[in-house]
Amino acid sequence: MRILLVEDEAALAAQVGASLREAGYAVDHAADGIDGWHLGSEEPYDAVILDLGLPRLDGLTVLRRWRAAAVAVPVLILTARDSWTEKVEGIDAGADDYLAKPFRMEELLARIRALIRRAHGMPSPELACGPVRLNARAGTVSVDGAPVALTAHEFKVLDYLMHHPGAVISKSTLTEHIYAQDFDRDSNTIEVFVGRLRRKLGVDVIETVRGQGYRLRPPPEPA
């Protein structure tokens, strides 16, 4: 999953970015509203963390422009602790959630996980496809209850596919959502990750759709 962090406070941005990456997210950072608005308009993100007090272009204006342009990405706004008016304005402008500064990183991560789940109609924190279970909070995967050890990139690929069950996902889409903007991307490595996942999971849940990409489907029930 790929996150856009729009925050001008350098120390906070570094802390949040590090925590997000440690949690397995690909993170792009913008330090002002103009850059944030441009990235959010042009790049495919799974969620955005948006500070409202930004230089060059304030966060509310950024958010309103996105929503006016039908950019439907889930947005978590960061507000001042006692500024209830910012919270109301943010929600009215199209924000999906808010968090007051200062905040605990665990709460931020929990809210981001919940935003992404809700965006895909998934209320449970544990994702399932047949015997495969993925827990984004714990960063664990199991098959029939037995833990499966995955690399960071293998986990990211499976996580994205499990958030889009039944949908055909192209290699380029997977590449865009598991790597940050400044990463040296190579869509051919997606084939390698999928091949490793199939071997490690030991069940046929990732289907290749020739010429289009991959689709996650539960294995057929035994006769």
From TrEMBL:
Lineage: superkingdom: Bacteria
Name of the featured protein: DNA-binding response regulator
Domain OmpR/PhoB-type: residue ranges: 124-218
GO molecular function per UniProt: DNA binding
Source lineage: Bacteria, Pseudomonadati, Pseudomonadota, Betaproteobacteria, Burkholderiales
Modification 4-aspartylphosphate, positions: 51
Keywords for this protein: DNA-binding, Phosphoprotein
Ranges of residues in domain Response regulatory: 2-116
Signal sequence range: none
PROSITE patterns the record matches: OMPR_PHOB (PS51755), RESPONSE_REGULATORY (PS50110)
DNA-binding region positions on the chain: 124-218
